[in-house]
Amino acid sequence: MFKHVKDMEYTVHVDQPDPRYAVLLLEQFGGGNGELKAAMQYFSQSLGCNDPKIRDLLQDIAAEELSHLEMVGEALGMLIGPVDNIPKDFAANHMALLGGGPLLVNSAGVPWTANFVNSTGDLYTDLSSNAGAELRAKLIYERLLQQTDDAGVKDMIRFLLSREESHNFSFMQALETLKGSGVNKDFRDSDFSKKYMNMSTGQGDSRGPWNQGNGFSYEENPNEKYGGPAQYGKDPQPNGPREVKPGYMDHTRNNPQYNQPQPPKH
User: Is 176 annotated in some ligand binding site?
Assistant: First the structure.
């Protein structure tokens, strides 16, 4: 059930119309890292989530993202101002022809699409994606903050930026509770999963914790050790030790205590 409250989550104030900045702010209304994308992504993920605690987290943040969409939309309406006042040579045609409110497009006028939404059904994968989405949104807000001198707009952007940080923290903490589950559990643990392949060779090759230590080995020239011409032949290990076995149920990946409903016996 949804219920709309007419008050904003945070007061939105704009000092004066600024159609140029409104075009930039559209990125967070209908863009691929914007508020609608986040709301739809988290809500879609929640519908397939069988972990009640993570489901609650996803729905709380999804609802807040819709509140942020509302805030950005209200700010856009004030920044656009009277359409008659937009200069005739204004570069963004999709803004100059509005009048009915902001369109679900990004700053370049490209329409919002469901392709922005990432939902896999694996909680570890989805929460990792969500944590990254919050950082991308934060980055856009940081850049938007540098593009205006409007004190009211800056205040709103700082609030939204701070909420992205909060959501990122929540998703990262939730990920900690899911270690060893879902896709984080089903690693083959093979020799190749513990190797770093030096595929971009030459001056500038670097070493660090991403390619050494923690049981990782560094392959300087992997093609010389493992490569060769393509050929027909039998897979030397058609069934590795960590292959998914018959009877595998995806429902148990996120919540081992989940019992899949069984059809009634006749």
Answer: no
56 is in an annotated binding site: yes
Q: Is 65 among the annotated ligand-binding positions?
A: yes
| Count of domains forming the chain | 2
The series of mean pLDDT values per 10 residues for the chain, 266 residues long, is 92 92 94 98 95 96 98 92 66 58 86 95 95 98 97 98 98 94 76 87 88 87 80 65 59 53 62
User: Residue 70, annotated ligand binder?
Assistant: no
CB 190 within 8 A of CB 240: yes
In this structure, is residue 42 part of a structural domain? yes
196 three-state secondary structure: strand
Tell me: do 38 and 150 sit in the same domain.
yes
* Helices within the chain (DSSP H only): 19-25, 27-30, 35-47, 52-80, 93-96, 123-145, 151-176, 222-226
Q: Which residues, at least 6 apart from 207, have a Cβ–Cβ distance to it below 8 Å?
A: 218
The answer to whether the annotation marks 119 as part of a ligand binding site is no
Residue whose token pair is 């290990």 = 237
For residue 195, the cross-strand partners are 217
**CA gap 21, 154 in Å, rounded:** 12
Q: Rounded to whole angstroms, what are the CA distances from 135 to 140, 141, 153, 172, 238?
A: 9, 10, 20, 11, 40
Are residues 25 and 155 located together in one domain of the fold? Answer: yes
CA–CA dist 105, 244 (Å, integer): 42
Q: Can you give the C-alpha Rg of the chain in angstroms?
A: 24
Please count the CA atoms within 13 angstroms of the CA of 104 that sit on its side-chain side. 10
Do residues 192 and 67 share a domain? no
Domain shared by 23 and 121, yes or no: yes
101 marked as binding residue: no
For 24, the domain range is 19-176
93 in a known ligand binding site:
no
